[in-house]
Give the backbone structure.
Amino acid sequence: MPKRLSNRKEKAIRKLGRRKHRRAEGRTLVEGVRAVEAALEAKAPLAALVASKEARAEDARVAALVRRAEAASVPCYTTTAETLAALSAVASPQGVLAVAEANVVAPGALAEAVLVLDGVQDPGNVGTALRTAAWFGAGGVLAGPGTAGLYGPKTMRAAMGAHWHLALARAADLAEALDGLRRAGFALYGADLTGTPARAWQPRHPSALVLGSEAHGLSAPALDLVEERVALPAASPENGSAQRTPSVESLNVAVAGGILVYEWLG
């Protein structure tokens, strides 16, 4: 049976809503029925599961999650719906959340196919990039300076469980990390508005693909180190399309990243 959530544990979980405490504790929150189901299915390193008494009594999926977590030796706790809502970062919590260990490796531990996020600031885009990388079988994701937190609540929601299928790393010095990958035999590619059209791209492996921010593109360190830039040309007569150039500024970085990751690994 789940134990009552103590005040001490409640305070510890509440702190995980702030990035500095997630980094210090090496833990993050997994929120919602489907997200906790995905974590349990992937045998993610869960340190605790918390369910509201109301959800456990009224929602069969929440009750089943508690049983599965207990069977997996995950410590389970119960609390009121009001307390769980206070712990949650979502507007309409589903009555269950989990505390997971945030597994971050050194950049040198990444292997095979690495997606690099170079100053991608929007956590939704970061989460979508993780989800895409996991879907197409990338080995890991490396977050450079200026990139949204890999384990922030919005990133976690957008990633839809991808965290448990990837090696994740951070780099305070992107040039050093990219150079380390290059010296380890990785080919380095960068997404850019100009460069080899994606359909003509012939990536080598192992390799890393760098996605820059929507506002600024690739940073100077990435531009200096990538051996080839890869582009997604807009529709125009110049590239064989019968359509005129569209009147949009650019593709969303997560959309562009998804297309390029498919060309790279799909």
